[in-house]
Design brief:
The chain is of the alpha+beta class. Strands 15-12-13-14-11-16 form a six-stranded antiparallel β-sheet. A five-stranded antiparallel β-sheet has the order 1-7-10-9-8. Strand 13 and strand 14 form a beta hairpin. The radius of gyration is 19 Å and the shape is globular.
């Protein structure tokens, strides 16, 4: 399959002001032991975090199944912020709290004190240049400081940035209706309540997005993730598709072929007259025969990702 990135950016109105991003929340882990504690919980190497460098990372259970995927930032010493779907903040906080024991740290759901905004395309360069930041100088997961907040360069080809502002009113022209679509086109996975515990990290291509460290020490789920990597070929991978129709499938929706389940929707969004989605799919499923379960929209059309998927 052709893996060249799409040249069409997500449809939307060009604005030089950030648009509010709905649905995100933030857990703030703070204290002397914050770094060492999360080093034993997350699949990326927390030691590499600093104020100008973030990470894509994930939390898994003991069986190596994903419980959350997050952006990790370290805005200050002994402080790590985990940005993840807001619907998961309370459950992930409770999961982490069970492992704290005598570690000197606090875990706070800071979602109500933080505003999230997005910048994309040419507008992001204009907005950042007005604040003496060269957008082209930032690589994915690099962070730059702005007034009362930070901007995080995201993966993908749309020149996307996430603005994280502390307190105050959000400076925006409305809600970003294309955020989810652009994350899909970037090939960036997410875990929601409906998909917790369904995937091992590599199934969602986290290893292809520098979201896993294979050289750090032990962490929850590490044995399964490492074994999956060293066994060789991964049998399920996250791929991108286009579907007809206008009803966006929920995360967790089944994909079928020959009346057998062959995959699961990771995230989906409206795209013009159709739908685009990311789904974890069996690599032996025949492209051109995969359907959304219980729908008569026809077969899914495979679309390229902005990075190559091994053995596909």
């Amino acid at each position: 399959m052709d893996h060249r990135p799409d040249t069409n950016s997500a449809a939307g109105t060009l604005t030089e002001q950030p648009l509010a991003v709905p649905g995100l929340g933030i857990l703030r882990v703070q204290g002397k032991d914050a770094g060492s504690f999360l080093q034993g919980q997350l699949c990326n190497d927390v030691r590499l975090l600093h104020p100008q460098q973030g990470q894509l990372t994930a939390l898994s259970d003991a069986k190596g199944r994903l419980l959350a995927i997050a952006y990790a930032l370290s805005p200050a010493p002994d402080t790590i912020d985990l940005i993840l779907p807001r619907e998961l903040t309370d459950t992930v906080s409770a999961m982490l709290t069970r492992y704290v024991l005598r570690a000197k740290l606090t875990i706070e759901n800071a979602s109500d004190s933080v505003q999230f905004g997005s910048l994309s395309g040419e507008a992001s360069a204009v907005w950042l240049a007005a604040r003496q930041i060269d957008a082209s100088s930032l690589s994915p997961m690099e962070v730059a400081d702005v007034t009362a907040g930070r901007v995080l360069r995201l993966h993908g080809t749309d020149n996307d940035f996430l603005l994280v502002q502390c307190g105050g009113a959000q400076d925006d022209d409305g809600i970003d209706g294309t955020w989810e679509l652009r994350r899909i086109r970037a090939g960036e996975p997410a875990v929601f309540t409906a998909t917790q515990g369904l995937f091992v990290a590599q199934m969602t291509n986290l290893d292809l997005l520098d979201g896993i460290s294979f050289s750090k020490g032990c962490y929850t789920g590490q044995e399964v993730i490492a074994r999956t990597q060293h066994l060789g070929r991964i049998k399920r991978r996250m791929l991108r598709f286009r579907a007809t129709g206008r009803m966006v499938p929920a995360a967790g929706t089944a994909l079928t072929a020959d009346e057998q389940r062959v995959g699961t929707v990771v995230r989906a969004a409206a795209a013009g007259a159709g739908i685009e989605l990311l789904a974890v799919v069996r690599l032996d499923a025949r492209v051109g025969e995969i359907l959304l379960a219980d729908r008569d929209d026809g077969v899914l059309e495979p679309l390229p990702l902005p990075y190559p998927v091994p053995e596909y």
